[in-house]
Known about the structure:
Layout: E1 5-10, E2 17-23, E3 26-33, H1 35-50, E4 74-78, E5 84-90, E6 94-100, H2 102-122
Amino acid sequence: MDRMTLHVGHTPDGESVRLETVKDGKVVGRIVFDAAATDQCVRNIAKHRAALTDTVAPSLDPGARLQPVADAAWGVLPAKDGKVVVAMRDPGLGWCSFAIDPEQAKAMAKRLEKLAEDAVAAS
């Protein structure tokens, strides 16, 4: 099988994402997505990533290489099933939302408060 690579970038006008397949240094295929199509592609990839046998770690490893978004916009909403929806905005992934149990929401709030207090005390 011939070895091909995938190059990902955005168009010069910043309006679209461009995916190119490259073989022997030559572009042999190209697809361009606008913002809505990019969102759909990312969701589709995430859906298939969730189905892989090599799953995402079930808990956050303290040594994990994260790429935190500084001062991310966030929101909380009640869910119809009695859970709490927590949403955070990533500039590339969009709004990522999670439906969590009320007790988990309380624990999260308590942990956030403690970390914030510690950060303020350290500054």
